[in-house]
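Input:
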Amino acid sequence: MPSVLVIDDEADVRNSIRLVLGRAGFEVLTADDGLTGVEGFFKQPADVVIVDIIMPRSNGIEVIRKIRGSYPGARIIAITGGGNFGPFGYKPGTIVTDSYLASASQSGADAVMTKPFHRKDLIALVRSLVKN
Amino acid sequence: MPRTLNTLVGRLALLQLLIYAVLLPALFYQLQAMIRTNAVSTFTQRARAYTASLARELELGDILESATRTIMFLDGGVEGGGCVYAAVEFNGRLLGSSVIETPAWVQSRGDDVAFFKSLDTTYAVSIPIRRDGAAGALYLGFDKQPMLAQLRSARNQIALALVAFGIATVAAAVLLARLVALPLTQLRTASRKVAQGDSTAHLSTHSKMVEIVDLSTDLEFMRSELVGTAERLRAEMRQRQIEQVERGALESQLRHEQRLATIGTFAGGLAHEFNNILVPLILYTEESLDEIGAEHPVHENLDRILKAATRAASVIYKLLAFTRPIAERQPESVDLAVVTNEALDLSHALMPPNIDLRREIGGQVERVLGDATLLSQVVLNLCSNAIHAMHDRGGTLTVRVAMRKRSPTDPLPIATPPMVELRVKDTGRGMAADIQERIFEPFFTTRDVGEGSGLGLSIVHGIVASMGGRISVVSALGAGTEFIVELPTVARAALSPEI
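Output:
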């Protein structure tokens, strides 16, 4: 049974993904922050990692770099709720949804998804990565 | 005193007339007296000398011996002296000339001595005669009239000459005064022009008079100094006004941008939170729908929840467009005129019949750096608002694309590079100032519930800002609304990549 590691600080997000993917036939592991997620992956590497980008204790971009650094073959999906944060304010060049996703792709994510997403899209994406 | 008399010409003429009023009569009487004295003196002397010479002939000769010879002598005397009578008294007898009657009073009148002693027209002279111890007298009368006529003529000539002199000198004075006044008038005309703002008018005259030339030189120097100072002051004032307007506009723009930035940050955070909430909402609902099957009584309700959640996701997506400054796609060179025309073609079908669309798109418009789809969205959003503002009463929607022109009150620095301008103007209800302040905020809407999301203009603002442009609004209640989008041209965007 292919395994999926879901790293997200939002419990509702983690649990709903776990339910959907679990019923779709995947073994789902979860972690509620970046650091825990990376440690968990190193202990038991999953076939697919779904990682949120904005998280406490090591954000998604760092998680992707660390995993990709040790496991070049890992399959990673980056997800984000988007928005506009921190000290940037509203001005051109601010890191926003598109920038997060672009940044995730650059650091090695195989796919990016914006929250919210539909069940069938999530399952299709995970399956396509597992096949590859 | 009338104005004419207060002029240089008037005063000089008046002064001369006053002087002449005293001087000329005095001169007249003096001259007349002189001439009269001389003429009278000559006349009396000649009359007396003539009479004396005749008397001497009578004393020395023997004419008196015969009455006939005496009368003939007297006749010759009358003719020779032009007398009005001639008579001689000798030895108690009075003999008179035969050619002219001897007046009865000739003996009693005697000798006049002075010319004007008697008032009649005769000057009487009497000279005593002595011959051989006997005494007598010669009486001659001379006509005064030619003399008096001569005096009258002389008097008239003097008067005429003096009057002519007076007129000539007054005229000369007037002429001289005019010569002095003319350059002064020229200076006054020029100084009036200067006072009315014609700084090019020179304070100069054609006069060669040293005093006038000196005066005009000094005035011209003063004028050039004043004009220079005034020019400097005007330039400084203009500069200060421009700075003030620029500062005011910049401050207002900054306040506006800061406000939008705060709202943008807040909206971005809110969108993030909502998206995280929507993930379990959608996934659990879809999972449940899949699990229970289409026949289950709650299937329909769950389906409604899913649709609502999807709509919420779509609203949040729009909200994020406000906070998203740069599209994923690379900006490209876009012809705003073409994009606008295409967008208007699209929206034409949706245009109510009571709204008249006027396109002012043409001429040379430089290309802008941006995204054609997003710019199309800008045009559609602005047109949609304009149509909404006029939908009940109808009106004219004017869409204009052109190069931006500078206006005198332009808040942007003079060196601002060229920009392309999109103007969307309606003849609708217009907006009050407090509404204009807030129209770019997300979720702000004046439409009725369900008619609009309040995101249209905030999305437009986000798109325009992402392309380094500006959007502003000109509106007044009852006077319609005009949105003005200014976008940098490709050349300008390439020059300032930090925007």
